[in-house]
Amino acid sequence: MEIFDMREFDAHELIVFGDDAATGLRAVIALHSTALGPAAGGCRMWPYATMAEAVSDVLRLSRGMSYKNAIAGLPFGGGKSVIIGDPQKQKTPELFEAFGRFVDSLGGRYLTAEDVGTTTADMASVARATRYVAGLGRAPGEAGGDPAPKTALGVHLGIKAAVRFRLGRSDLEGLSVAIQGLGGVGSHLARMLADEGARLKVADVRAAAVRRVCDELGASAVAVEDVLAEDVDVLAPCALGAVLNEQSIPRLHARIVAGAANNQLAQGQDGQSLLAAGILYAPDYVINAGGIISVSREYRGGATDAQVLEDIGQIPLRLTEIFERARHENRTTNAVADEMARERLGRHRQKMVA
Ligand code: NAI
Asked: Which residue, 137, 138, 132, is CA-closest to 112?
């Protein structure tokens, strides 16, 4: 595997491989940039078919974290880790403790938390071996804990900013929103949107999650293969990356795409196709920063939940600035966001188009 030649390699500062035979841990940590502080970003557990797939994911995700943290104004660089394994079958506290030792070996250059496939409970195991972890349980009123509800809040506020900008409306009453993925973020987002009168169409590969949201919130279930193409005001991808691509974009009917999933655009040029189709795209790493904002406050210590909510309240302002700049310069929102992030990172050159 020629890592330096990989499309996703973008002058990453460090990539380390961890192997612990006793617990079966196989993990990769990538630090994209520590220019703004220690590299912060979650730990994903996923049954990658090949090592190349895992490396490609961690390179892409860690770079995304650099951009996300920079745009959110956090004193952190960008990093990410992946554990190769099936989160349904291969999790043990010992495995996460071994992962904690791996994180600790970097001496604080990398700070971890939960991500897809990992939970607050897993991070408690990590914390037995390192202090460079956040997203743990916390006392009422204290900053931190599970980042997913905070991410959902940021996405909710971001959707409202996009609706105001694109549709000229300040409320969500009667607006239709399709949500792809009803996990930690999507399920919280569904509740917040329903509370404001939005009409929801939802899809998930887990039938039970769909049933619960339909029963509790009066949402309509749609097929997994159809959700992206629903004729709705807003499409909120909250499951997988690369869902906005050459095949899916011509099928979209939404006027706004604003959701939590990381790396929604398969390639940077897909942003251009969205612009040409008149679809307003809320750049993923700007709208989904609520979780890392919470993790960052928790890690630095001494903060309250109210301060986290105040910080998350900046997300719609940042998005509106990007929307306005993009419209003024007739550019894509993702290009404008990338440029703002690179300016803050002191990296003016962009190697990867994604
Ligand atoms: P999660 O793993 O709890 O939920 C993902 C959901 O998507 C699951 O319910 C899964 O069954 C569903 N799903 C998987 N494949 C699907 C498909 N083809 N069609 C429809 N549904 C499908 O993950 P979580 O935490 O809710 O995150 C969602 C997305 O947001 C991920 O892309 C994640 O990287 C991103 N994100 C999450 C943050 C957080 O704080 N949890 C922070 C920033 C980004």
From this structure: 132
